[in-house]
Amino acid sequence: MSTTEQNIKTAIEALNLADKIIFAHCAMRSFGGFEGGADRLLDTFLSAGCTVVAPTFTYFPMCHSPDGIEYPQNGYRGELEIDPSPYDAHANDIEPSMGAFAKAVLNHPKRIRTEHPMNSYAAVGPLAEAALAPQDDFNVYGVYQSPQARNAVVLSMGVTPNSITPIHYAEQLAGKALFRRWALTANRGVVETCVGSCSEGFIYLQPYLSPIQTKKRVGESTWTAYPLEALLDACAQAFRTNPSIIRCSDDCPRCEDMTLGGVKTLN
């Protein structure tokens, strides 16, 4: 079987997504086939008045600090061996693991993309500019902070909580300090940025997410919708209650350092 466009339209109506900002996380393979693919899926959301926001991360620009800065508890142990290529927000470079739907958002002719050289977001729709405006190099999760995002929905299409990016922002809301990385840009040289932690253990948050989620079978795919503010509140409370709740293993430096509270800087 495959998923049809009518399945998508029915789901948009049932989940009350029309005209809202949708923070989308999608595995197209979960659809069991969908005529038109990711581009058609995106067009269906846009036809309903949605503003679609997707993470369009790329790690190719990552480089070492030009000043040799090494912050304590910064989520790595000197293992970064890299050959950076410069980030350009006008280009369509993207980490392949972001998936086909994020790539479709990035390649849409009317998309807007942020300037963060490692953790950029792209958006299409009437509220795209407003949704993306708060992000900068250090306020990496600014996309979840605009007034327009208060009624936003985080939509998981065939993916697990491990792929839900705003959970990283909940770590910050719980008082954890985000990691620092450096990246080469096409127009600004090397810049220092904030980035999130490991997401492999986000699956352990499911007991906190279940009370606020709405699930729907959409053709062959399972969609889960979360009100953004409720998701952030639930996850931040989980981190305050149990700082190590999402630790994926004993030998993950990002999990270890974030459990301890995150990076220690002078500022």
Automatic annotation (TrEMBL):
InterPro entries: Amioglycoside_AcTrfase (IPR003679), Antibiotic_NAT-like (IPR028345). GO terms for biological process: response to antibiotic. GO terms for molecular function: aminoglycoside 3-N-acetyltransferase activity. The keyword tRNA-binding does not apply. It catalyses: a 2-deoxystreptamine antibiotic + acetyl-CoA = an N(3)-acetyl-2-deoxystreptamine antibiotic + CoA + H(+). It comes from the Bacteria. Belongs to the antibiotic N-acetyltransferase family. This is Aminoglycoside N(3)-acetyltransferase. The lineage of its organism: Bacteria, Pseudomonadati, Pseudomonadota, Gammaproteobacteria, Vibrionales.
